[in-house]
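Hi R.,

Here's the input for the flavin-adenine dinucleotide complex you asked about:
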Amino acid sequence: MINPKIPNGPIENKWANYINNSKPINHANRSKYHIIIVGTGLAGASAAASLGELGFRVSSFCFQDSPRRAHSIAAQGGINAAKNYKNDGDSVWRLFYDTIKGGDFRAREANVYRLAQLSVKIIDHCVAQGVPFAREYGGLLDNRSFGGSLVSRTFYAKGQTGQQLLLGAYSALNRQISAGTVKSFPRTEMQDLIVVDGHAKGIVARNLITGELRAYTADAVVLATGGYSPAFYLSTNAIGCNVSATYRAYKKGAFFANPCYTQIHPTCIPQSGEHQSKLTLMSESLRNDGRVWVPLMHNDHRSAEQIPEQERDYYLERKYPSYGNLAPRDISSRAAKQVCDDGRGVGPGGKGVYLDFSNAIRRVGKSVISARYGNLFDMYIKITGENPYDKPMRIYPAVHYTMGGLWVDYDLMSTVPGLFVLGEANFSDHGANRLGASALMQGLADGYFVLPNTIAGYLNQIKPGLIKDNDLRITESVDTSREYIRRLMMIKGTKSPDYFHRELGKIMWNDCGMARTESSLRRALSEIPKIREAFWKDVNIPGSDMEFNQTLEKANRVADFLEFSELLCLDALKRNESCGGHFREEYQTIDGEAQRNDEEFCHVAAWEYKGLGNEPVRHQEQLKFENIHLAQRSYK
Amino acid sequence: MNLRNYTLKIWRQKDKFSPSYLDTIQVKDISPDMSLLEMLDVVNNHLITINKEPIAFESDCREGICGACSIVINGIPHGKERGTTACQLHMRHFEDGETITLEPWRAEAFIPIKDLVVDRTAFDRIQQAGGYISVNTGSAPDAHSMLIHKNAADEAFDAAACIGCGACVAACKNASAMLFVGAKISQLAHLPQGDPERKRRTNAMVMQMEKEGFGSCSNTLECEAVCPKEISTKVIAELNWEFIRSINN
Ligand SMILES: Cc1cc2nc3c(=O)[nH]c(=O)nc-3n(C[C@H](O)[C@H](O)[C@H](O)COP(=O)(O)OP(=O)(O)OC[C@H]3O[C@@H](n4cnc5c(N)ncnc54)[C@H](O)[C@@H]3O)c2cc1C
Ligand code: FES
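And here is the predicted structure with flavin-adenine dinucleotide in place:
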């Protein structure tokens, strides 16, 4: 059985009670514990730095050449915190409420409440590190609004908030590297989780420069390896983002929760051709000032400026008058799809809607708009060759974030004792839909504040340094990984890993994307194994595995996507309801909104691996709403 | 859409021990909407299908923020478009039939790994030497307990926009890293939080920079011209000023 281990007491006091009742590790003993942290994004870097500060011995891994290049660097718009600096009625409770409601009542109350409480301390800490957040003339911090909220609680650094927060965490990590508490292993990719007697005891990792495979043993392993959006091939994620670390941990016994909860972001630059390697996000913050519209008429081929005001449909403002352009992502994306399916989309193939700044530029002037979003506008110009100061942006939804991830309890520990999971890699806080500016908040809360307080609970129960690198069970794990890589190298087929990845992406987007049906999911489930089979017969990896080999890196990741996607579709098939980003066409209200089924599906689905080819087992964690009334979500 | 053809001259090098050479590759039917890296993807996918080694090059975010991509394009790091990384450079900026030369960053401190990929961990070591404010998690006061002048915050931000790509080094005849180091020094020097450690920080980072084998600045300003984030050489002046302050007591 899976037990979320939620502490007792009223929700406001759970975390404080937890800490009061916990037993920290004696300072003098901490250096006896070796902790591996895979991932140097916001979650991993903040955890490694904080555990290092506490005196633990930490090894930090990433596949990029530097920890600073983790995907978190690309986050644009901002980070939420319940500071109520704007005096607009914000509070920990309101952030908690917005997040639960935004997640369409599919997240765990206790975790989300803790997140809202910790949000406040994150901002304090980041400011102390020297993160240059935007400020007002009086010297105080500025805020902007994000979707799914009626208050302004988003802190930002132009359109580069993720970069600035990550550089803050990277600097804290560097300080520990220089202090000798953290050892850094860049360009080192985890291949497998080592489990000994049921406990996580290390990883097998490949040095990406030399190809050397070896085991790293530890007393606990932390995965902060990010999300799996590139299962859809095209997404807004960095092209290296992958599911391998979490999927391989799943194969070693960690349950995978809610893989079907994927977020399609409403405002991305539309695809321009087959060659495209990724899609580019235009931050949600743009919807503070940009208005979304399409022509009222079908197949209207006039250019935007030729369409008079009364012939435009500002459909978000029309359908959701109280939230307007700041309706949450899942709802805005579906609304965009609906108007495009209705034949009112703009741009090539009718796959786009306008995001128009002309009103805002008239109201506050071009220079203010440029100060707020300059880098985003520049990015748009570079990619499309069009100037959004003069004509509206064209945008379309794209895969952006994955709410699903490895199942964790309140301690952020997975079902494998000693394996902790942080950030986008876990499933914990966003339910079926994540609100904007909440991922950065969660990653940093997990790494700076939660794990450093919860890991002791596990470490207290074990003896440090029990397993040695030359333990037979460890060397066996390395051999298994070596054999797997050898199998990949031996295929010597005719196609690139990209070819199979693209094929997979087409199926995932068409059959398991913004709208899913039983039949589309069944089709995907029968097609994916065929691509996987073709991959294992016909992929080609030139060169050797004992050198820098990017084709091998790619093939290794694609192989996991080809297995994992099946799990994603299966989860979508078994969840016979619509909620948040998971939209099953069979389950919708008369006006086309997601129709939940709380009777049968008010639970987390946590999947247990049973071997390739066997159907995994679906476990359930019932969600209890004791503080917020389960209700149909409305943003009208 | 009019597709275009190009001749690529690409630096190939198996590893740091092997000699390098320029490989010539013809590419056909390239859409002007592709980025330069997507054009290389097309080339690589083809090379893989004919069992030839694809061109190793680095990229991740592909939107100009992670600093992974690092190619000298026709003699200029990241190419001739201002304020643009290689991953954001689209093929519409190249004439049909053009010859495009692609080389890695070249500097003593950046050791070759393969083809267009080099080792830039020297940058990390400089940051580890002192590019931080010493504050432990959990010890910070309320963010509003300290007022920071908007101009100071904005200047700190402008310097902090550095993506650590190393184009500045690649462009400099001295392979100097002073724009990169100055950016961090300037960011923290503009903020009150950075004040207590300013001398120690500057000293430690400059020492590490020299140890890694980066040269000194002789004011050619190539670094500023190629910096994809258009970081101003003002940060180098600030670095010099902070350095003098750091040794005078
Ligand atoms: C374009 C874009 C904009 C965004 N904007 C915002 C925003 O404004 N606000 C917000 O709150 N959220 C935003 N998000 C979401 C947010 O950026 C991410 O959810 C978050 O940064 C994830 O952080 P993370 O630390 O969990 O993982 P990541 O930052 O993805 O880091 C993963 C780490 O794991 C490592 N890794 C992975 N696999 C392995 C392996 N096998 N071996 C070794 N290392 C491995 C990687 O090297 C990397 O260091 C945005 C996302 C995108 C794509
Ligand atoms: S790939 Fe990230 S900056 Fe170019």
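One thing worth noting: The radius of gyration of chain A is 24 Å.

Cheers,
M.
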